[in-house]
Every structure is written in structure tokens, then in C-alpha cells.
Amino acid sequence: MKFLFDFFPILLFFVAYKASDGDMFLATGVIIVASVVQVSISWWKHRRVEKMHLITLGLVLLFGGLTLALQDEQFIKWKVSVVNWLFGLAFLGSQFIGRKSLVERMMSATISVPKPVWTRLNLSWVTFFLGMGFLNLYVMTHFDDDTWVDFKFYGVLGLTFLFILAQAFYLTRHVRDPGGPKEENTP
User: Fold this and answer.
1) Are residues 42 and 96 in the same domain?
2) What is the C-alpha to C-alpha distance for residues 33 and 129, in angstroms, rounded to an integer?
3) Looking at the structure, do residues 83 and 125 belong to the same domain, yes or no?
4) Mean pLDDT of the region 22-45
5) Are residues 62 and 89 in the same domain?
């Protein structure tokens, strides 16, 4: 359910674009409204908003607003790259700031793995986010709007899902039982 909540602005953008026969400006207006609604619902239900949603909202308002004000769809296309690059830089920065990387902060309450595994996971997210930003840049500059919208929906979500799945398989090799086996005191 959280996955759907996190991605419903993208879903509505996709549906609006396809239903309007390729009206990028209508779809941009829809994602702006959907992002505002997403943050509002989160605040109303939990009295807090995830940083990811706030950052995304800010960038949607900025790039979506520029898209609508200047009637230039390139701005909304750039948002995908900028969001990914900012997340990549945040994950990279967390390697050097604080005691725990972002991945460790998000997951250490539920799983336990050795510190080098946290480092590899965090750096893999850095690589993923930076790569996705550049991949979006390539698709937006080399393909038409329909292909870019399909990539934004199917490609970004699909690659993210596959990446998370690959990380889950990687983690299963390294997860430690928090209780661990009891050591017996033998004389």
C-alpha cells in the first residue's frame, strides 16, 4: 500500500498524459496537484511528511511550475534526473556524514548486517540514482514524448523494482539473526 501511495502522483501523471492524447501540460498540472494531495494526506494522517515526499513536491512545484509558466515541457522532464541526482548525492554524502549511511538508517531497525554490507548497499543506491538520472537524460533527449512518458512510468518503476529485488537477494546472504545462536558455556 505504501508503494502505491509513494508512486500515485507518477501513476496519475501517466494516466493523464495517455488519456489526454499526449498533453504534457495537463499531465504536469495533474502531477503537481497529486503531489500536493500526497503531502497533505501524509500530514493529515500522521502529522509528519517524509523527506522524500517534501523534496519531490518542491521539485515538482519548481519544474512543473516552470513547465506550465514557460510552456516548455523540458522542465518536467529534467525533474526526473534532478530528483535522482539529489538522492544519489544525499546517499553519497551520508557515507561521510554521521555514523550511519542513509540505507543503514532506513533499514537497520528491521535487519542486521555487517557494516561493510551497509556500505556496499548505500554505494549501490548512489550508483543506481546517478545512473537513473543519466538514463532519463538520455531518453528525454533521444526519444519522443510518448517514449519518455512510457520510460518514466514503466522503465523507472520497473528498474527500481528490479534493483530492490536484487538488493533483497544480496541481503539474504548477509542478514544476521539479531538474537543469534546462543553460545553455550562449556568447561
Assistant:
1) no
2) 25
3) yes
4) 95
5) no
Residue holding cell 499531465?
Answer: 27
Residue 99 and residue 1: Cα distance in Å, rounded? 31
Cβ atoms of 87 and 103 closer than 8 Å: no
Residue 185 contacts by C-beta under 8 Å, 6 or more apart in sequence? none
Q: Mean pLDDT of all residues in the chain?
A: 90
Residue 177 DSSP symbol: -
Question: pTM, whole model, 2 decimals?
Answer: 0.84
Angle at 121 between CA 39 and CA 172, to 5 degrees: 105
**Range scoring the smallest mean pLDDT among 9-13, 98-102, 173-177:** 173-177
Q: What is the pLDDT of residue 187?
A: 44
The answer to whether 37 touches 31, Cβ cutoff 8 Å, is: no
- Residue 76: pLDDT band (50, 70, 90) is very high
User: Would residue 36 count as lying in a domain?
Assistant: yes
